Amino acid sequence: MSRLLVTLMLSVGLLSACALSPQIIDLHPQVQVSGPAYGQGRQISVTVNDLRDNQILGSRGGVYGNSSTITINNSLTAAVQTAAQNALSQLGFNGNSSAKPAQMTISIETLTYDTTQKSLMYHVDLAAVLKVTTTIDGSIHEGSYTTQGKHQFGQAPDADKNASIINKLLSDTIDRAFSDPNLARFILKN
Fold it and tell me: Does residue 103 sit in helix, strand or coil?
């Protein structure tokens, strides 16, 4: 009888270890742009749109993968807008020039989190796609910027770790957009 009880307790323990709780994370991407300050004092307004079909980033996996979701607690559009405005300020966009003002629309097309478990390791695949449309006096520049990340962990990452890797992914994507030489040339030409 005690052998059966021990086996049952071990089985329940193993199954519960495979069940992962949902996570709600805060996103605050930080961007430190490098390169020339091509803003040259130009005024720029930034709008951010979230075009994703689902507000859930993905699943943490486990036995109950459909319910062990990762969602964002704060406003994703506000977080991206703040990071973009800080990056643009670093690039010299401050409204002190008589150059024609620019309008920028950042569309969040993709932000996903996918996990698989293989050989006792958690493999996390991340993807972000931002489309940036910049308009100056009727002229338009469009760019699409994609970043992918792959991580592996010995155990399922906690909320802080997930927030960290997703913030880095978003930061890298925003940095990629503002480091685009075609965007810089477009702004300098107009």
Answer: strand
DSSP for 25-85, written as a single string? E---------S--TTTT--EEEEEEE--S-SEEEE--STTTTTSEEEESS-HHHHHHHHHH
CA distances to 11, 57, 136 from 42, in Å: 64, 35, 11
The structural domain count of the chain equals: 1
Is residue 99 domain-resident? Answer: yes
Question: Residue 167 and residue 76: Cα distance in Å, rounded?
Answer: 11
For residue 56, is it within any domain? Answer: yes
**Does 6 reside within a domain?**
no
Model confidence pLDDT, tens digit, residues 5-27:
445 444 444 444 456 899 999 99
Residue 123: give its domain's CATH number. Answer: 3.30.160.150
Q: Which residues contact 46 (CB under 8 A, 6 or more apart)?
A: 81, 84, 85, 88, 104, 105, 106
Global pTM value: 0.87
Q: How many CA atoms lie less than 13 Å away from 142 in the CB half-sphere?
A: 3
